[in-house]
């Protein structure tokens, strides 16, 4: 209290709310947030020094998928957990092999919210929420794998929950079923299936059941192919490329018949059960009886639709196959196409280019092609404050200085040879961008570029200044990179982790850690 009063006097602030706001923005040198930012700034400078290397400290192979979450490597269907934070990865826990009926379908890492009182001491530590093939939702300790909570999801209404996602990250979670499909015999008998998906909604820490609802053909139409919930918006996708947005919070409030708590007794179709317990599971207590008010709709090829920027804009591809690789950036307010809002790299490649709003919340847009990364920004058109234009902030270009792609060459004997075809933009023998990511704590843009010569592919991870795109550091990856395999690369402060999936479900994991040593190290 004395320190708070001193801070108030020192800065001339006489209002507690203003003081707390200034502390949240890091105005005071002794504030924990300021110290943390300074430490991350030091780490960034150390990491980008020429003498700093990244060394391959650990490699493992597995016959089952490998996952990475916040310094933890999960193997054997989450039965084995390894920390990657130590100088060399070490085992945290190893559980006995689970039966097929206990197989984990999906998982989310749950971290403790700051400044909140929670009912259990275990709530203050990181945990893993997993969904099993038998429709159990489990909360596991991230340090031991111990089951902290368990909820049975599937009652009489649904038997196949398969997907976990965040509506609001670390606050509201969505559990989605697989699409309901009738057996062939039932379809031949003329039986109609109107319910396509079920969505169960939970608030986390403490784990609280909000409700369950169904996505029904009678309400949303016959051609629904998928649904998602994000940031309070229900997103419904249709087979003809149509995307419709609804206010999810308003749907919960308008159509909820009755609220239930986990562990509460309830009567369902004449049977008394307990919410979240086997065999009754969860009641479908949100019944949508009428089409909710439509917030927005757009037609886009393959339902590709994104919202972001400031003021709000959205990105679509015109809904015709000939427009694949063409992106339109439009105002969400009036659907007006931004000036220079048509982005087309005119790539001739096997893999298409991709575009998305920058995850750093700057409102910028990242457009990635085989040999070019464009970072774009929205800005007002001069003398037209109500109109926005797309301008180039900076570009990152692949290193293709040694690449010669002449259509006509002359042999040593003087014979002229004409090529019948041109190289693709993502030809494996040319350096090609495969992954672009953003490290928020160090404010770095990371790229993975690959060149394959014969059977041997070489990749390097580059760190770029997020503000200007300047190359700060390049890290060669020691292992061969086959462009036909599936790859994931994680850059997490002083750690680089590469997960590779080979044919026949063979997985490999390579861990690199920062080494600050001026001495030459050939390892």
TrEMBL record:
One GO term (biological process): protein ubiquitination
The keyword Transferase is annotated on this UniProt entry: no
Domain of life: Eukaryota
InterPro entries: DCAF17
GO cellular component, as recorded: Cul4-RING E3 ubiquitin ligase complex
Transmembrane segments: 195-215, 227-246
Keywords: Membrane, Transmembrane, Transmembrane helix
Annotated protein name in UniProt: DCA17 factor
Organism: Cisticola juncidis
Gene that encodes the chain: Dcaf17
């Amino acid at each position: 209290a004395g320190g708070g009063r001193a801070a108030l006097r020192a800065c001339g602030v006489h209002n507690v709310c203003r003081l707390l706001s200034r502390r949240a923005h890091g105005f005071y040198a002794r504030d924990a947030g300021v110290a943390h930012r300074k430490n991350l700034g030091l780490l960034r400078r150390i990491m980008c020094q020429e003498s700093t290397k990244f060394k391959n400290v650990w490699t493992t192979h597995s016959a089952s998928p490998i996952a990475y979450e916040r310094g933890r490597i999960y193997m054997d269907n989450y039965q084995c957990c390894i920390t990657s934070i130590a100088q060399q990865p070490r085992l945290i826990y190893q559980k006995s092999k689970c039966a097929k009926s206990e197989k984990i379908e999906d998982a989310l890492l749950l971290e403790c919210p700051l400044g909140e009182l929670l009912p259990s001491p275990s709530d203050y530590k990181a945990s893993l929420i997993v969904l099993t093939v038998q429709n159990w939702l489990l909360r596991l300790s991230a340090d031991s794998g111990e089951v902290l909570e368990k909820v049975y999801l599937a009652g009489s209404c649904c038997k196949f929950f398969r997907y976990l996602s965040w509506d609001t990250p670390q606050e509201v979670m969505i559990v989605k079923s697989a699409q309901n499909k009738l057996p062939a015999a039932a379809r031949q008998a003329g039986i109609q299936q109107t319910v396509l998906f079920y969505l169960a909604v939970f608030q986390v820490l403490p784990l609280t059941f909000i409700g369950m609802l169904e996505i029904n053909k009678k309400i949303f139409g016959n051609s629904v192919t998928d649904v998602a919930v994000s940031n309070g918006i229900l997103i419904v996708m249709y087979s003809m490329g149509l995307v419709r947005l609804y206010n999810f919070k308003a749907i919960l409030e308008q159509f909820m018949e009755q609220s239930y708590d986990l562990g509460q007794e309830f009567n369902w179709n004449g049977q008394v059960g307990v919410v979240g317990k086997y065999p009754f599971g969860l009641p479908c207590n949100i019944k949508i009886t009428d089409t909710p008010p439509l917030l927005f709709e757009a037609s886009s090829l393959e339902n590709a639709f994104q919202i972001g920027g400031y003021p709000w804009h959205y990105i679509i591809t015109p809904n015709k196959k000939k427009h694949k690789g063409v992106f339109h950036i439009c105002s969400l307010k009036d659907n007006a196409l931004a000036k220079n809002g048509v982005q087309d790299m005119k790539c001739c490649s096997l893999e298409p280019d991709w575009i998305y709003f920058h995850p750093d919340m700057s409102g910028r847009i990242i457009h990635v092609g085989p040999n070019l990364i464009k970072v774009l920004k929205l800005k007002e058109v001069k003398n037209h404050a109500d109109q926005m234009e797309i301008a180039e902030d900076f570009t990152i270009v692949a290193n293709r200085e040694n690449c010669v792609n002449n259509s006509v060459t002359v042999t040593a004997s003087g014979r002229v040879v004409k090529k019948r075809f041109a190289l693709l933009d993502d030809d494996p023998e040319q350096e090609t961008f495969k992954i672009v990511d953003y490290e928020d704590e160090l404010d770095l843009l990371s790229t993975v570029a690959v060149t394959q010569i014969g059977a041997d592919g070489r990749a390097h991870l580059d760190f770029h200044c997020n503000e200007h795109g300047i190359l700060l550091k390049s890290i060669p990856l020691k292992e061969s990179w086959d462009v036909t395999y599936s790859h994931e690369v994680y850059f997490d402060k002083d750690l680089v982790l590469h997960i590779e999936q080979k044919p026949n479900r063979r997985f490999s994991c390579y861990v690199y850690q920062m080494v600050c040593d001026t001495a030459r190290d050939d390892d």
